[in-house]
Amino acid sequence: MNKNNFLLVITIALNCFLGFSQTKIDSLQVVLAKTKVEKDRLTILDDLAKEMIRSNHPKQFQYLNDLVNLAKKLGDYDLAASRTRFIAQKYIYGGDQDSAIYVIEEMLKFKPKFTKKKSEAHLLLKRGGAYFNKELLNKAVKDYDHSADLFLESGDSIFAADARFFAGQVYTNLKDFLLAIDRLEESYLLYDKLGDQRYASYSLSELASLYGRNKFFKKAIEERKKVLEQQKQIRDHSGVGITCIQLASNYQSLKEIETAKKYIDSAFIRLDSVTHKIHIARIKTHGAAAYADYYLEKNDLKNAKKYLSIADKEKEFTGAPEYYNTILLLPRASFYSKSKKYAKSEEILKTILSKKSKINDVNTYLEAEKEIAELYALKGAYEKSHIHTTKYLKAKDSLDNEIKTNTFLFYQSQFETERKDNEIYKKESEIALLEKDKQLAKSKRNVLWMLLLFVVILSVIISSVIWKQGKLKRAALAAKIEKNKAELEAYTKQLLERSKAQEVLTSEIEKLKDELGAHQSSEKLKDLTAIKILTNEDWYDFKEKFRRVYPNFFASIKNKGFQLTKAEERLIAMEKLYLDTQEIARMLAISQDSVSRSRLRLRKKINAPKGSSLLEYLEAS
C-alpha cells in the first residue's frame, strides 16, 4: 500500500470513529475535504453521490457535476456517462427538458471513449424521456428503440424491458398499432423472463388498453385476465381492484353488463385488503363510476345518482381529483339527460367537447358529440343538432377507418407469422433430408460416445475403490471408539472399586475409634481423610478417556453458552455415564446429599425445568 492510500485508509477510519453520530453523507464530506489524491477523491465522490441520490439530498446536483468532471479528467468516461444520466433525470423531473437533452448530448460526444455499450444506452433512455415530455415523439421512440438494442447486447434485460415498454407507449401515441403491440409484447416477455411480475402486468395492462381502444374487446379481456392472475399471485390488491374495473369496462363495451357488474363487485370486495388510502379512493371512484354506467344502462336513476355521489366524494382523496372529475363527466351528463335536466347535461357535454385535445379516450369525445346532438334535437335546435351530428359522424368514420386499418394490419401480421412458420417447417424438412448425408459424422459421434462411456466406467471403478478405502477407515475409527469406550468403562469401574475400598476403610476406622479410643486412632483417621478418590490427576486422566468416547460433549455444552465449573463438569460427566447418586458419591468422595445439592444448584444455574433430566436439557438446548 502506497503512502497516500495508507493515509486515506487512516483518515477514513479516524473519521468513522470520531463521527459516529454523524450521517454517512457528513462523514464522506469530511473525508473528501481531507483527500488530495484525485483517484481517491473520485471513489469518495461516487459513494457520496450515491448516498445523496438515495436520500434526495439538496446538494446532490453539485456533487454529481463534480463527479462527472473529475471522471472525465481521469479518463473514466463510462462512470461519467453513468452519473450524467442522474443529472439529466434531475432536469427532467424539474421540467427542464432542454437542459437534460443538452447535458446528454455533451456526454455523447465522448461515445468513442466508452468501453461499455450500456453507457450510451442509459443516456439514450434518458434523452428519450426528455423528447417524450417535449412531445417530440419520433425522436423519443428512436432513442428508446436504440437504447433497448444496446441494453440487450450488453445483457442488461431489465433496462431493455423498460425501453421497450416506453417505446410501446410512444408508438401508441403515434397511432402505430402494430409497432406498439410489438414493443409492449417484447417488454412483457423480458419482464416475465426476469421474474418481475409487477412490471410484466403493467405491460399486459397497456397491451389490453391498446386492444380495447381498437375494439379488440375479447383480446383485451384475455390480456387483462392474465394481468389479474399475476396481480393475485404477488398480492397486489389495489392492482386487482383496478383491473377488475377495467375488465368491467370491456364487458360493458360488449354489452355484457351483468358480467361487468360481477367484476365491479369483485373490485369492491378486494377493498378490505387494500391499505393505501389513495389507492382505496381511486378504486372507489373508478368502481362507483362503473356502477353508475351499469345503472344508467338499466335506467335505474336512483342508484345511478347514489354512485355518482360516492364517486364525487371519493375523487377528492385520489390525489388527482381533476383527472377523475373528467372521467365522471360523461356518466354525469347521461344521468342529467335521462333525468330530463337538459340544461345541466348540455353544460357538461360542452365541457367534454372543450377538453377534446386533453382527453385521451376518443370514445368519450365521440359519445359527447352524439349525446349533445340528440339533446339539441329534443330541444328543437335542429341546426345545432345537425352540426354536432356531422362532427360525430366525421370523427366516427375517421376512427372506424383507423380501427379497420389496424384490424387489417393485425390480422395480416398474424397471417404472415403463420406463413413464416410454414416456411420454417419447409426448411426443417429440407434439413432432415440432408441429414442422410451425415452418416460418417454420426459414426464419429458413436466413437466419441464409446470413449465417453469408457471414461464413465473408469470413474465408477475409481469411485468404488475410494469408497471401499473409506469404509475400511470408518470401520477402524469405529473400533477405536469402542476401545476408548471400554477403557473409560474400566477406568470408571476402577474408581468405583477404589471408592468402595475407601468406604470399607472408613468403616474400619470408626470401629478402631470405638475399640482404641479417639486418641489412638486420630493419626490413622488423619491419614485416611487425606486420600482423595478423584484428585486433579485422576480427573485429568478420567476426562481424557471420557473425551475419546464423547469428543464433542464439553465443547458442545460450552458453545451453547453454559459456563460450568470443574465440579459441575465432573457431575454432568457422571450423569452422561448414567451413574446413580450413590455411585457418583462414591466416585467423588462426597455424600449423597452433597450430590443432590450439587444437582439442585446446577439446575437453578442453567434454568432447567422441574422434572427434566439435567443431561437431556443441556444436550437439547
Features:
Serine Threonine Protein Phosphatase 5, Tetratricopeptide repeat, Sig_transdc_resp-reg_C-effctor, 0% strand, disordered N terminus, 82% helix, elongated
Structure report:
The chain is built from 28 helices and no strands. With 621 residues, the chain is mainly α. Among the domains are: 196-328, Tetratricopeptide repeat domain (Serine Threonine Protein Phosphatase 5, Tetratricopeptide repeat); 340-415; 482-620, no CATH class. Helix 12 (217-233) runs antiparallel to helix 13 and helix 21 runs antiparallel to helix 22 (518-529).
Average pLDDT taken over every residue: 79
- List the helices and strands in order: HHHHHHHHHHHHHHHHHHHHHHHHHHHH
Strand tally, please? 0
Report the sheet with the most strands, covering strand number, pairing sense and barrel closure: none
Oligomeric grouping of the chains: single chain
Helical content band: over 70%
- Secondary structure class reads mainly alpha
- In whole angstroms, the N-to-C terminal distance is 47 Å
